[in-house]
Design brief:
The chain is of the alpha+beta class. The protein has 2 domains: 49 residues, no CATH class; 191 residues, no CATH class. Helices cover 44% and strands 16% of the residues. It has 13 helices and 11 strands. The strands form 4 sheets. It has a 4-stranded mixed sheet with strand order 3-4-6-5. Strands 9-11-10 form a 3-stranded mixed sheet. A hairpin with a 2-residue loop joins strand 5 and strand 6. Helix 6 crosses helix 9. The chain is elongated.
Length: 254
């Protein structure tokens, strides 16, 4: 038995994964150390390893597989999920990972992994033949990004994504927003999706639900807006650039 070839079947592995091949845990630990010493494997973080490809000399596991293996509930999320779906126009070196349990941020092979604590594991996909990747559904990724736009995505980037995003499932969108139980999230979601309703397959019924669930509060759409314009449709103060862009899109549809 060649333990290197056995572990090549696992993009990311731990000492426990080797334990089935040895009589005790200590022997498995010794085997991992030997693989690392020979340059056949590399340590990602505590008790997380990946083999080194004999062909390329690079780690076998990609950033999405690593993100999906950090904790039992971790998954690729936010703009990293958009990258996985091929929607982003550029590669980022920050990998966002949602998880029920927290972990310390860390770096490996040029990427920095950031923990986003979540309270639910709904709307997570496990694509077939992906090598264990877990990723938030497209609909949850959109909602998560709108919710965290001040910290992660940003208004302009979000608009760029929605311009090229495939059609969305309204039932999944409603489910994700409801899980957060946040009126402001209904309000922001309605505002952004209304700009691209035809492209995204968003109905007037869905937008009306967003308005009904938004409450009567007048809010700033982002905490970094100091001077903006008031959108009376959604009772939101938005940046002048965003307001003007929405008006341009609206005029094109007339």
């Amino acid at each position: 038995m060649n333990i290197y070839f056995e572990m090549m079947k696992h993009p990311v592995f731990s000492i426990d994964d080797l334990s089935g091949y040895y009589s005790n845990h200590e022997s498995a630990r010794t085997a991992v150390k030997a693989l690392v010493k020979k340059g056949l494997a590399v340590k990602i973080r505590s008790n997380m390893y990946t083999c080194i490809s004999g062909e390329s000399g690079a780690p076998v596991a990609n950033r999405f597989q690593i993100a999906s293996s950090i904790t039992p509930t971790s998954c690729v999320s936010h703009h990293s999920a958009f990258e996985y779906y091929g929607i982003m126009n550029q590669i980022y070196y920050d990998v966002y990972v949602s998880s029920l349990s927290s972990f310390r941020d860390f770096s490996f092979d040029g990427y920095s992994y950031h923990c986003i604590k979540t309270d639910f594991v709904d709307e997570i996909d496990t694509p077939e033949y992906s090598g264990g990747i877990r990723v938030t559904s497209l609909e949850r990724t959109v909602i998560d990004s709108i919710k965290s736009m001040d910290k992660i995505t940003g208004t302009e980037e979000l608009i760029e994504i929605l311009q090229i995003c495939p059609k969305l499932d309204e039932d999944k969108l409603k489910k994700c927003i409801s899980l957060y139980g946040n009126q402001f999230l209904w309000q922001k979601t309605g505002f952004f999706l209304s700009m691209f309703k035809e492209r995204l397959g968003i109905s007037d019924e869905f937008l009306n639900i967003c308005k009904q669930q938004s409450g009567k509060s007048h809010r700033y759409i982002s905490s970094d807006i100091y001077k903006g314009k008031y959108d009376s449709d959604w009772q939101l103060v938005v940046s002048e650039k965003t307001f003007d862009y929405k008006q341009e899109v609206k005029d094109e549809d007339i």
